[in-house]
Amino acid sequence: xxxxxxACPVWESVVRSLRYWLAPGLGVKxxxxxxxxxxxELALALAYVLxxxxxxxxxxxxxxxxxLQFIPRLGRAALFGLLGLAxxxxxxxxxxxxxxxxxxxxxxxVAEILRRHRQRERGPRIVVIxxxxxxxxxxxxxxxxxxxxxxxxxxxxxxxxxxxLRREMGLLPPGDFRNCLAALAEAxxxxxxxxxxxxxxxxxxxxxxxxxxxxxxxAEITGSFERAVAESSRVLAVRGRVLPCTVEHVVLAAEIRDxxxxxxxxxxxxxxxxxxxxxxxxxxxPEHARAYPETIRALLEADLIVLGPGSLYTSxxxxxxxxxxxxxxxxxxxxxxYVCNVATQMGETEGYGxxxxxxAIERHVGSGLFDLVLVNSRTDVAWKEIPEEVxxxxxxxxxxxxxxxVVAMDVIDERTPWRHDPEKLARALLMLYERYRR
Length: 438
Known about the structure:
- By secondary structure, the chain is of the alpha/beta class.
- The chain contains 16 helices and 12 strands.
- Helices cover 46% and strands 14% of the residues.
- 35% of the residues are buried.
């Protein structure tokens, strides 16, 4: 017996399942209706047969009670109708569990999963431009809201495992591609952890990430780096795609002004943060590296273009300096949002506020590249165990930054308040898209 005032768990499951299956946009109601029509036709055919037998063949008196003739016809219709609905609903729930249980996580309803999948399929076409931890953080949040994601990744990285593979094998640096693939992956957690595993010992292997070696091997097998990334996406069941800003081998160079006012030129992305001083400008060598055509197409077809978060001079700007990227962004009809970093970065943006981040981009690519600037509004979270490369909170004084609309929202991860929270940031961007889209 079910306690008074509490619904039967089986009945709750039936109602919940039917509610999900009949939700708008699921794409199954038409087929359920057609199935209902087919069952009704079969029921009518069976009814004609039974009525013929009942009228033409002599039956024992017991059939008077078996056919419920002591109940009015409308009453019998209502009774059998309710029994039919309950039986069909229960059968639907059990069919879900029986047929699809190998493909569904325990405790999750098939119809709910299908509904969310359809919502993601109809989500906006989003292009995220950047690199490093910030880009992969954002992608982890966005993959639950849209499957039409494109990550545009810088290829200027020349440090660590990526730098070694770049120098020894002539590859584009795979590190940021690996991080984006892992962030977008739908594969089992063990596979994702394997892709991100970094060797801690071994001659030649020490410091290499398994995913970097996997992409390098795939590039040798397929004959191109772009194909290697695409095939790696299939292995990890990636939701979305990862594209290079260019397939040309580029070096990031910078002019840095020291405390005495002298200008130093630094070549190499990994060397730039090591030189103390204020970065005046960065550029690519060669300066006219051409954009990857698929990347240009993605920008032109996008509904939402997001710049950042990520290291301003070594992750965001290197993408924008590739020939063709900025004109494509300006030509796109997408809503364009710059996500300002939560914290400054030692060796790059020490002492920068929101306005300084925006003006640095303007010095390199001109004004008006984006429509909105999304900044963090939380400044009351205590920092603990801050990494050495992190400086201080990036603050906005509330003053307008023409010609942009500045929007302040709580987007930080309270456990690591110098970084964005994937879910908060993704929800904020989708909210801005719904509010400001053209």
